[in-house]
Amino acid sequence: MPIITDLLYLPPIEYFVAIQGHQEIWLDSKERYQKQTFRNRTQIRLANKVENISLPVIGGNKKVNFAEVEIDYNQKWKNIHLRGIQSAYGKAPFYEFYFPYIEDVFAKNLTKLSELNLELLTVCLKLLKLEVSVKYMEIIGEQPNVTDMRGIIHPKEGFEARNILMPTQYSQLFGSEFVPNLSIIDLLFCAGPESKEILTKSQKND
Fold it and tell me: InterPro entries from the entry (predicted)?
């Protein structure tokens, strides 16, 4: 059964919990860009705080097709993101195994935000060993037997407001209190091959 989702930047764990059990991810090719969403931001855990890192874009507004939104390379965001990820997870157990895959995507200097997000999503699905295909759909109306997750996972409200994630704790690098629903890279770098099982355990049952 397919699931329709937004195309997010290094999505939160909740996203991957939501797509488990689906064979296809459908993306809306005519989607409009929306500010202040996970399309251009993600959350990582540093030594003293949870940090929101965001991608600067050129001309992003609701009238623009998301596929046309460009990344602003005039700002030094890439160095900030790579240094931030290294600072947060450089000592994590599986960082050295998984980080090169993420770094390789950044090295391509992709100009479109949607292209970057899609490549990073593809890499994360591979590292999680989730057998899910991703495709763009030209026309998405109401579809029988299709789960529509568009607009559901949003940074303006916590995951507790949605019926998707029941966090399963894993060993994080910093702090004594577990922080749920960070970027999927937090789980990958900290839990490695156990990540898929943790996602399965984190599915909220009605």
Answer: WbqC
